């Protein structure tokens, strides 16, 4: 969903599992879908963990636990490994997550999230561990993700870290631009450069 990204202040959904791959995020059978509707992919985020084989909700899975909610998913190390399917990022965005915090992301999945207006925030393992502890102690723990200043703050204990982001992607997120929008925004400058280059 295209929406300008500035500061996100939210509670979190914890997923303290390492090596969560894209097939777990969105199973391969959904890659045959003929739609890209966010609601469709959001409903099937972590499909095989959220639902039992008979289609009923798995009450033990965190997305089905009413104690946890928010726009921030906190995940274990090496999130988004496996195949490069962009559908995984569609599912995360479609569910309503605007930020994913982890100590490490698979590169392709990290870029797919950015391209779909989800901010992947890389933090230290110690910060991540303390954040999981805070959420476990109090599901209402609030985290502030400040994109302009590139900081993430755990309000429960005052932990604050800076995070890295490509300058181009930062600009696009803050202005709700995808790659095509960016090119169109700079159309006049591009045409002017081409004219100058031909002279």
Q: Could you characterize the architecture of this molecule?
A:
By secondary structure, this protein is of the alpha/beta class. 37% of the residues lie in helices and 16% in strands. It is built from nine helices and eight strands. The strands form two sheets. Strands 1-6-7-8 form a four-stranded antiparallel β-sheet, covered by helices on one side. A hairpin with a 5-residue loop joins strand 7 and strand 8 (160-162). 30% of the residues are buried. The mean pLDDT is 92.
Can you describe this structure in just a few lines?
With 199 residues, the chain is an alpha/beta fold. It has helices spanning 22-25, 38-43, 47-50, 87-95, 107-115, 125-137, 167-175, 179-185, 187-198; strands at 7-10, 12-15, 72-75, 99-102, 119-122, 143-146, 151-154, 160-162. The longest helix is centred in the middle third of the chain and has 13 residues, at 125-137.
List strands and helices in order, with pairings.
Elements: E1 7-10, E2 12-15, H1 22-25, H2 38-43, H3 47-50, E3 72-75, H4 87-95, E4 99-102, H5 107-115, E5 119-122, H6 125-137, E6 143-146, E7 151-154, E8 160-162, H7 167-175, H8 179-185, H9 187-198
């Amino acid at each position: 969903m295209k929406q300008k990204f500035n500061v996100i202040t939210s509670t979190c959904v914890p997923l303290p599992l390492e090596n969560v791959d894209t097939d777990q995020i969105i199973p391969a059978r959904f890659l045959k879908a003929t739609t890209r509707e966010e609601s469709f992919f959001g409903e099937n985020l972590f499909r095989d963990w959220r639902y039992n084989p008979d289609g009923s909700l798995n009450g033990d899975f965190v997305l089905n636990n009413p104690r946890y909610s928010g726009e921030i998913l906190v995940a274990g190390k090496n999130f988004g490994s496996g195949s490069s399917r962009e559908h995984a990022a569609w599912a995360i965005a479609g569910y309503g997550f605007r930020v994913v915090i982890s100590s490490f992301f698979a590169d392709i999945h990290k870029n797919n999230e950015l391209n779909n207006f989800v901010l992947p925030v890389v933090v230290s393992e110690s910060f991540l561990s303390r954040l999981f502890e805070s959420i476990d102690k109090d599901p209402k723990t609030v985290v502030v993700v400040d994109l302009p200043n590139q900081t993430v703050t755990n309000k429960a204990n005052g932990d604050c870290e800076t995070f890295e982001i490509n300058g181009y992607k930062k600009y696009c997120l803050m202005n709700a631009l995808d790659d095509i929008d960016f090119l169109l925004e700079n159309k006049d400058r591009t045409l002017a450069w081409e004219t100058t280059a031909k002279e």
